[in-house]
Specification:
The protein is mainly β and about 70 residues long. It has a domain of about 35 residues. The chain contains one helix and three strands, in the order αβββ. It has a three-stranded antiparallel sheet with strand order 1-2-3, with no helix packed on it. The longest helix has 4 residues. About 5% of the residues are buried.
């Protein structure tokens, strides 16, 4: 099985209380500035956290020359 490198291992969010990386999303709300606010609860210790996600940048130009 392929082992993740150090950069991939540090991806995602971690509960500040117990260190768990598993969350339930309880509420998702788009904001006026284009971001998304997600309210989450840790599956292990039930700590509540809020995350803000930015929309992805502009898509690359996909012009095809044939």
């Amino acid at each position: 099985m392929k082992q993740p490198n150090a950069e991939q291992a540090n991806r995602g969010i971690e509960c500040p209380k117990c260190g768990c990386r598993h969350f339930y999303t309880t509420h998702t709300e788009p904001l006026r500035d284009g971001r998304i606010r997600r309210r989450k609860v840790c599956r292990h210790c039930n700590r509540k956290i809020v995350t803000f996600e930015s929309p992805p940048g502009p898509l690359p130009n996909r012009d095809c020359y044939m």
